[in-house]
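User: C-alpha cells in, sequence out, please.
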C-alpha cells in the first residue's frame, strides 16, 4: 500500500507544476482607451453603502464609494464593474453607453442561500439532489458560547445537540439518531477544506456559512468518516478593495437559572422529629448551609472580543482575525480562556487560470476545571445543611465519623485541575483551470493538537482524605475508583500531542451540451494520524504546597510506602487512511438531477483481511416546478422531489490496535533466584475486524411558494448500521486473552424532518421572518449477534452500573433486540406496603420488598425524544432588530438517579435528602432502589435566546456601521422534570441518565457592540 501511495503522491505533486507551465505560455494582456463613469451604490433598503470597493474586472483599476455611496472610475464600454462590500454579495455591472449607474447590493446572506458547500466542491441549491441544510451566520444561536456546536442547537431538523452549563464540556451532537455504540457519534467537520478539523479552532464571528450534509448521497464522498454526518464550515474571506476592519465584542453576566430542590436545616430536623430520631451532634452544629450555593459563584462574567481585517486587490485577497474569549463557569474555580488566530489568503495568477489559497487557524485554550467535579456535585447535594462550611477557627469542617463524606468546598479549594490545549491547523490549496473544461484541485492540510494537563491535591487531602474511602465518580456508566492521596500532596503532570497530515487531489470535468449538464469529480485522499505522543507522571511528598503541579522536583515519592508512579494509560498510536473517490452529476435543463458516487477506503485500524471498504451512493431529483403542468401555477415557484441511497463507513472510536493482539503485565514469577515480570495476552487479534457500515435511504421534497416567501423541506429517512464494533468477553478456550473486538449487531433509525421559513412581512420600515423546524426519530436495535466462532449470540446486554447506597451491582440500561439504544431497564415500583416499605413488581406480577437484580427488571422507557422542534423569529423596524428563538423536545424519558441517591432516607440526618422523599419512612431501606419511581418525563420547552439590537445611521469615512445589542439566554424552561435541568446528555451509550454529573445551567444577559471601519 505504501508503494502505491508514493507513486500517486509523486504524480499529484508533478501535475500542478506541468499545468502552471502550460498556462504561462497562453496568457495575454489587453488594454484600451478608457473614459470616466460614475454612480451610486445602495443596499436593498435604499441606504447608501459607504466604503464599497468598485473595480474594473480583469484590470488593476479600483476606487471606493464615499459616505453617500457615490463613486467615479475610469472604464470603457463592455468593461465589467465589480462592486463589493463587507456583508454584501459582490455585484457585477457591464458598462454600456450610459455614464451614470445606480447599483443595489444584496446582503451576503441572500447570496449564500443559493450556494452550498459540498464534499470537494460547491453546488447551487437548485441542482442539489441530496438532503443538505444551510445555516447563515445571522441564524446561529447568540450568547456566551465557547463551543461552536451550540451555535446550531435547535436550528437544524434532525440534529440533536445537548449541552451542560460547564464551559469546558463540549456539546453532544447527534445527527439523525445514534447509529452505533462504539463511536463518539459526533459529526465530521470540514473547515475551509480541512477534513476532520477541530471545531474549537473557529471563532463564531468568523463563520460565513455552515452546511450540514445529512443523507448518504451527500456524505458518502467522505467515506470512512461520514457515518455520523458531515458539517462543512466556511470562514469569512477577503474581498477586493481597501482594508476593511471590524470589531465585535460582548460582555455577559451569568447567574444560576435553576437548582435542585433540597431540604434546609429546619426541614431536615422536622423530618427527624417526624421519624422519631435525633441527629447526631457531630452533624447538627446549628448551621443552615446551602451547600449547592457554597460551591457556586454568585455570578459569572464572560466576555468575547473579535477583531478582523480583510481586503485585497484585483488579483489577491486576504482576511485575518484575532478572537479572545474568557468564560467563567458558575462553579468555583471553573473557567475557560481561549485565543484564536486565523488568516486566509488567496491569489489569482495566469489570467485567473491559477488560484493559490492558504488558510491557517490556531487556537489556544486554558480550561480550569472543578477538581473531582462529579464528587463535588455528589457531596454538595448530600452534605448536611446543619453543618457549617468552616469551623470556628477558620478551618474546613469535616465529619470523619461518616464514611465517604467530605466537605465539597474543601474538595475544590484544596486542589487544582487545569488543562491547556492547543490546535494548529492549516492547508494550502491549488486550483488550476485546464484545457478541455478540466479543473485540478489539490489540498495539502496539516493539523496538530496539544494537551498539557496538571492536577494537584495539596497536603489537606493527604491529611484528611487518604482513609481508603475516597471514591471518585465517573459520568453515568463510568463507574467509580478509590483514590489515595499519599503524603504531603499529590501531583499529576501530562503532555500529549496528536497530528494529522492530509493530501487530497481531485480533477473536475464540467461540460454543457445544450440542455444537458455533466460534472464529474475523480480524486484521491491520503491521511496519516498520530495520537498520544507524549507522557504522564505523578509525584508526592512535597516540601510545601506552593508550587502545585509545576515543580515535580520538589517531591520525593521514594520515601512514601506503596506509591507507584502513574505513567498514565495513553498508548501511542499511528493510523493511516487511503481513499479513491468518484462522483458524477448530471442534470437535464436543471429539471432532472442525478448524482452518483463511490469511495474506496483503506484503513489500518481494521483487520488485515478487511482493511478495504467500498461506499457507493446515488440520488435522483425531479424539479416538478419546471414541468409544464406546474409552470403556470402562480403560487409555486419551486418544487423538487428527491430520492437517495448511500453507504458510509465508520472508523471513529477505533484505535490502531483494536484488531491486534496485545499483552500486559501480569505480576511476577521466580526465575533463577530473582523475580521477573510476567506478561499475559490482554486482547486477542481479529484479522476479520471490518468496517461498520451505515446505509441511508432518503426521500425528500423541497418547496417554495409565493415567490419565495414560503420555503422549506420535508425528508423521510431510514438509516441502518451493520457490523457494529463491540468489545466482547469471550471464553478463554476461544482466545486465551478472554477479550476481543468483534463486529456485532445492527441498529436502525427511522425519522421525518420538516422545516419551513416564511418571509411574513417585507416592507421598507418593517419586516418579519419566521422559521420552524421539527424532527422525529425512532431508534431500534435489530440484531446483537456476532460471529458464531466466537460464541457471541446474545440478544441483550446489560450496562450502566451506578454504585449508589443500597444499589451496588444493579444496572440501569439494556441493549436488547427490539428496543432502542439506551433503553432503561430496572425495577417496576409498586407503591408501599402496610408498614410503609417500598414494594416492587416481580416478573410474575406479584409484589415484593426485596426484588432480584435483572430477574425482576422491566423495560421502563426510552431516552430518545419522540419530537424535537425549534422556532426562530427575526423582526426589523427601521433601525431596530429583534430575534428570539424557542426550542424543545417531547416524549423522552430521563432516569433521575440523582433523585434516587438523594432519597436514601436511612442516613437522613447524617446526610441531606430531597423533599420528594419526606413521606418515606426512615425504616424504608429500599426506597431509593433504581426503579420506575425515578424515571421521569424529559420533555421541555426552552426560551433559548432573544436579542434586541439597534443600528446607527453612520455616514462618514471612518465608521461604516455601528450596532449595539442586548441578548438574554435561557430565559425560562417549561418542564415537569424534577432534576436541575432536563437537557441531559444524549451522547454515548448511557444517554439520558442524570447521576451527579450535572453542571448548573445559567441565565445570561449580554451587552454587545459591532462596528465596522
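Assistant: Sequence out:
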Amino acid at each position: 500500500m505504501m508503494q502505491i501511495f508514493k507513486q500517486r503522491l509523486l504524480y499529484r505533486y508533478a501535475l500542478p507544476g506541468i499545468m502552471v507551465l502550460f498556462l504561462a505560455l497562453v496568457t495575454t494582456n489587453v488594454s484600451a482607451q478608457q473614459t470616466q463613469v460614475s454612480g451610486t451604490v445602495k443596499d436593498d433598503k435604499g441606504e447608501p453603502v459607504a466604503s464599497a470597493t468598485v473595480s474594473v474586472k480583469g484590470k488593476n483599476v479600483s476606487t471606493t464609494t464615499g459616505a453617500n455611496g457615490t463613486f467615479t472610475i475610469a472604464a470603457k464600454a463592455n468593461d465589467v464593474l465589480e462592486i463589493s462590500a463587507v456583508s454584501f454579495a459582490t455585484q457585477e455591472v457591464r458598462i454600456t453607453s450610459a455614464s451614470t449607474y445606480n447599483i443595489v447590493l444584496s446582503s451576503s446572506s441572500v447570496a449564500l442561500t443559493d450556494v452550498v458547500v459540498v464534499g470537494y466542491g460547491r453546488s447551487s441549491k437548485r441542482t442539489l439532489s441530496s438532503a443538505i441544510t444551510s445555516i447563515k451566520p445571522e441564524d446561529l444561536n447568540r450568547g456566551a458560547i465557547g463551543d461552536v456546536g451550540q451555535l446550531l442547537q435547535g436550528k437544524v431538523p434532525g440534529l440533536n445537540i445537548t449541552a451542560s452549563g460547564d464551559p469546558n464540556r463540549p456539546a453532544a451532537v447527534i445527527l439523525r439518531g445514534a447509529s452505533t455504540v462504539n463511536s463518539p457519534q459526533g459529526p465530521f467537520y470540514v473547515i475551509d477544506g480541512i477534513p476532520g478539523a477541530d471545531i474549537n479552532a473557529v471563532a463564531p464571528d468568523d463563520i460565513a456559512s455552515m452546511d450540514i450534509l445529512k443523507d448518504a448521497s451527500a456524505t458518502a464522498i467522505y467515506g470512512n468518516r461520514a457515518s455520523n454526518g458531515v458539517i462543512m464550515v466556511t470562514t469569512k474571506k477577503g474581498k477586493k478593495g481597501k482594508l476593511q476592519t471590524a470589531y465585535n465584542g460582548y460582555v455577559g453576566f451569568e447567574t444560576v437559572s435553576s437548582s435542585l430542590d433540597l431540604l434546609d436545616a429546619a426541614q431536615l430536623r422536622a423530618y427527624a422529629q417526624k421519624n422519631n430520631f435525633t441527629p447526631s451532634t457531630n452533624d447538627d452544629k446549628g448551621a443552615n448551609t446551602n451547600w449547592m450555593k457554597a460551591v457556586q459563584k454568585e455570578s459569572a462574567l464572560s466576555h468575547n472580543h473579535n477583531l478582523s481585517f480583510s481586503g485585497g486587490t484585483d488579483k489577491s485577497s486576504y482576511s485575518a482575525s484575532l478572537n479572545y474569549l474568557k468564560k467563567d463557569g458558575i462553579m468555583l474555580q471553573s473557567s475557560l480562556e481561549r485565543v484564536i488566530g486565523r488568516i486566509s489568503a488567496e491569489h489569482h495568477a495566469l489570467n485567473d487560470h491559477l488560484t493559490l489559497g492558504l488558510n491557517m487557524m490556531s487556537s489556544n485554550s486554558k480550561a480550569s476545571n472543578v477538581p473531582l467535579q462529579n464528587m463535588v456535585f455528589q457531596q454538595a447535594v448530600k452534605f448536611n445543611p446543619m453543618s457549617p462550611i468552616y469551623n470556628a477557627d477558620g478551618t474546613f469542617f469535616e465529619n470523619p465519623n461518616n464514611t465517604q463524606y467530605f466537605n465539597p468546598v474543601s474538595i475544590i479549594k484544596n486542589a487544582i485541575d487545569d488543562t491547556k490545549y492547543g490546535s494548529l491547523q492549516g492547508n494550502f490549496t491549488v486550483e488550476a483551470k485546464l484545457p478541455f473544461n478540466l479543473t485540478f484541485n489539490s489540498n495539502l492540510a496539516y493539523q496538530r493538537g496539544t494537551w498539557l494537563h496538571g492536577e494537584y491535591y495539596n497536603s489537606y487531602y493527604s491529611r484528611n482524605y487518604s482513609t481508603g474511602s475516597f471514591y471518585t465518580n465517573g459520568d453515568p456508566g463510568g463507574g467509580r475508583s478509590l483514590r489515595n492521596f499519599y503524603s504531603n500532596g499529590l501531583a499529576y503532570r501530562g503532555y500529549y500531542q496528536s497530528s494529522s497530515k492530509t493530501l487530497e487531489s481531485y480533477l473536475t470535468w464540467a461540460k454543457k451540451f445544450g440542455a444537458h449538464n455533466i460534472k464529474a469529480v475523480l480524486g484521491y485522499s491520503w491521511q496519516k494520524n498520530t495520537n498520544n505522543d507524549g507522557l504522564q507522571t505523578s509525584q508526592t511528598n512535597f516540601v510545601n504546597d506552593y508550587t502545585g503541579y509545576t515543580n515535580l522536583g520538589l517531591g520525593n515519592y521514594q520515601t512514601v510506602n506503596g506509591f507507584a508512579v502513574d505513567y498514565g494509560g495513553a498508548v501511542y498510536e499511528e493510523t493511516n487512511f487511503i481513499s479513491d473517490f468518484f462522483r458524477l452529476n448530471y442534470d437535464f435543463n436543471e429539471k432532472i438531477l442525478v448524482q452518483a458516487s463511490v469511495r474506496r477506503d483503506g484503513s489500518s485500524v481494521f483487520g488485515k483481511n478487511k482493511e478495504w471498504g467500498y461506499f457507493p451512493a446515488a440520488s435522483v431529483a425531479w424539479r416538478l416546478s419546471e414541468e409544464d403542468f406546474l409552470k403556470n401555477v402562480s403560487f409555486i415557484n419551486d418544487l423538487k422531489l428527491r430520492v437517495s441511497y448511500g453507504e458510509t463507513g465508520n472508523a471513529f472510536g477505533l484505535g490502531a490496535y483494536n484488531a491486534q493482539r496485545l499483552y500486559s503485565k501480569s505480576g511476577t514469577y521466580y526465575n533463577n533466584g530473582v523475580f521477573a515480570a510476567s506478561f499475559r495476552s490482554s486482547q486477542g487479534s481479529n484479522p476479520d475486524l471490518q468496517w461498520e457500515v451505515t446505509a441511508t435511504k432518503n426521500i425528500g421534497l423541497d418547496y417554495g411558494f409565493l415567490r419565495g416567501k414560503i420555503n422549506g423541506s420535508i425528508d423521510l429517512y431510514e438509516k441502518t448500521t451493520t457490523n457494529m464494533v463491540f468489545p466482547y468477553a469471550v471464553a478463554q478456550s476461544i482466545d486465551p486473552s478472554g477479550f476481543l473486538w468483534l463486529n456485532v449487531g445492527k441498529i436502525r433509525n427511522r425519522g421525518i424532518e420538516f422545516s419551513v421559513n416564511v418571509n411574513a412581512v417585507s416592507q421598507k420600515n418593517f419586516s418579519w421572518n419566521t422559521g420552524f423546524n421539527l424532527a422525529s426519530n425512532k431508534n431500534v436495535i435489530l440484531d446483537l449477534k456476532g460471529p458464531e466462532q466466537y460464541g457471541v449470540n446474545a440478544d441483550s446486554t446489560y450496562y450502566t452500573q451506578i454504585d449508589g447506597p443500597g444499589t451496588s451491582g444493579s444496572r440501569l440500561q439494556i441493549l436488547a433486540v427490539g428496543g432502542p439504544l439506551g433503553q432503561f431497564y430496572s425495577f417496576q415500583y409498586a407503591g408501599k406496603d402496610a408498614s410503609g416499605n417500598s414494594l416492587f413488581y416481580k416478573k410474575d406480577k406479584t409484589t415484593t420488598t426485596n426484588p432480584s437484580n435483572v430477574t425482576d427488571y422491566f423495560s421502563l422507557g426510552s431516552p430518545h425524544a419522540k419530537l424535537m422542534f425549534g422556532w426562530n423569529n427575526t423582526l426589523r423596524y427601521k433601525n431596530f432588530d429583534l430575534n428570539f428563538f424557542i426550542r424543545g423536545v417531547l416524549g423522552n424519558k430521563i432516569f433521575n438517579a440523582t433523585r434516587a441517591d438523594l432519597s436514601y432516607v436511612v442516613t437522613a440526618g447524617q446526610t441531606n435528602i430531597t423533599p420528594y422523599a419526606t413521606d418515606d419512612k426512615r425504616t424504608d431501606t429500599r426506597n431509593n432502589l433504581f426503579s420506575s419511581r425515578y424515571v421521569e418525563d424529559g420533555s421541555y420547552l426552552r426560551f433559548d435566546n432573544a436579542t434586541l439590537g439597534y443600528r446607527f445611521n453612520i455616514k462618514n469615512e471612518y465608521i461604516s456601521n455601528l450596532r449595539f445589542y442586548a441578548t438574554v439566554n435561557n430565559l425560562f424552561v417549561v418542564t415537569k422534570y424534577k432534576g436541575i435541568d432536563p437537557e441531559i446528555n444524549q451522547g454515548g451509550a448511557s444517554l439520558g441518565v442524570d447521576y451527579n454529573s450535572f453542571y448548573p445551567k445559567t441565565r445570561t444577559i449580554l451587552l454587545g457592540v459591532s462596528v465596522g471601519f
